[in-house]
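Entry 12.
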Amino acid sequence: MEPVLPLRFQGGGEPMASAPRLYIGAPPASQLLATVIIPAKNEARHLKRALTALAAQTDLDGAPLDRRSYEIIVLANNCRDQTAEVARRFARTNPDVALHVVELTLPPAEAHVGRARRLLMDEAYRRLELHKLPNCFIASTDADTCVAPTWLAATHVELAAGADAVGGRILTIAGTCRASVASRRHHLRDAVYRLLRARLESLIDPDPADAWPRHQQHFGASFAITPQAYRQVGGLPVVQYLEDEALYQALRRHDLRVRHSPLVRVLTSDRQTGRVAVGLSWQLRQWSRLHQQQREPQVESGKCLLQEWQTRRQLRSLWATVRMAAVAPDRQTVRELSTSLGISAIKLALQLSQAATFGALWSWVAAERATAGLWDKRWPLVPLQQALDEVRQLIRHYERPVR
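Predicted 3D structure (tokens):
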């Protein structure tokens, strides 16, 4: 077996020299198309349901998938319960499922989901690279999540159509406890806002690789990436939380194609006692607190979103012109764009000439804009209901047929 390939990524998140590495000794099947990874910390209660859903994968016509076409790696890290034993018991009772179970105790500084998912994705990458089958992919989910029967098949379709990565639609199981009911209203309204944002974005600055209909989620409970894209961005950034968002941003900086597919779906728990400092469970707790305080969530206004996406579209066009013609950017256009963004025109002109990808340029703009602070003053957050009304009105305007 070949050694684990060294991976690097932008942002200085290189693993510590002493950090452990996963290594599955059993060779992958020659037909392997997908390696599914599941980080699991104290998940004995939920893990069997997650594995049962993965064992029942079908193609889009409902026929069972060839079990040799995918495998599952569970990393039980720093567990104080029977997580690993639950996985091993499942493997014994389902011998036709390629399930690899690894137990690991990470040092305190490394005992977080970012490290666990990085270890898993690195090993999945190594195993898929052994055969290099076309359209193979790393698929990530969570131990408290049940994937749809066509989860892998629908993901494969999107990747075969040209996507480099696929974010699946993540739905939650409705809880019955008072805290869950209290947070669910905010959760549903936020989901509507995010979907309406995605629709407006597709009207103002459409992405050919992520056409409407689409959604807005690209999180660890349902995310897939090709080995080539994983290699290109240097692997999953090792951060304590929001590692999935960090990976998405790395893909965008490289101008890679991310598809938010409505065909790829999972169902996850709405528990408020999660395993990470910031994630869905944390957000649910925040919404529950807002409900108790009778306060409205604050979000970006429709006018703010419109300004951002119109400016981004104009900036992308200017960047493409500069790259294609190898000329200096038009000064007047740069001044207008810098004024809209609230950043320095001199710095923007320099970045337009130097940025190798538009994603890298836009990432710089976001950081520079945050530092300058003018954008936030110009576009303060507004109550969620106000933003919903504004975005709906803008969508109606831009969907109106041209006469």
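Annotation: The CA atoms of residues 166 and 259 lie 5 Å apart. The two ends are 64 Å apart (CA to CA).
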